[in-house]
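We keep the chain:
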Amino acid sequence: MADDSYKTIKQVAEGYYTEKRSRFISYAIPVRTVEEVKEQLDKYRKQYYDARHVCWAYMLGPERLTFRANDDGEPSSTAGKPILGQINSNGLTDILVVVIRYFGGIELGTSGLIVAYRTAAAEAIAATGIEERTVDEDITIAFEYPYLNGIMRIVKEENPAIVSQKFEMDCEMTLRIRKGEAERLKARLLKVESAYIPGTEF
């Protein structure tokens, strides 16, 4: 996978696992920010207020550098870590996995817990669709109106998304393109007479 793309999930999905009368209900949830993670956790804690444990792990950002795992009272590393392990083994990001446990009265032991949380997390991830997305960059280019055709020809060939455009005597366009292709697009645009990238001129 290129360094300007990442894998995430399309929609919320649910998984289920039982072991020795303990029930594990799992959810894979698409999230973008830590705030969203907190909102979702509050929602599931309220929904399953009578559950013994609400354990979770999340991974955020295309570089997959922002992550946390929480055992919520289970023995250390028996819940959050196996959940995070499933996120990692699928190479996913912008995802929160929550596993809710209803205790069935029989202790599972640490290895039993690890298997249960790992399996429940895997079930939820398997139930959702995984998609690859690109890491994009926005480029704003300013130029004089007579050079519009030259700029538009490059836009047509490179095919970036047009975020905004303003065509007056002085024109400005903001384009969005995959990060790996951004430098080439910038170089081509800057070859057009009068074109410059605002904020970069000396």
Q: What stands out?
A: The radius of gyration is 24 Å.
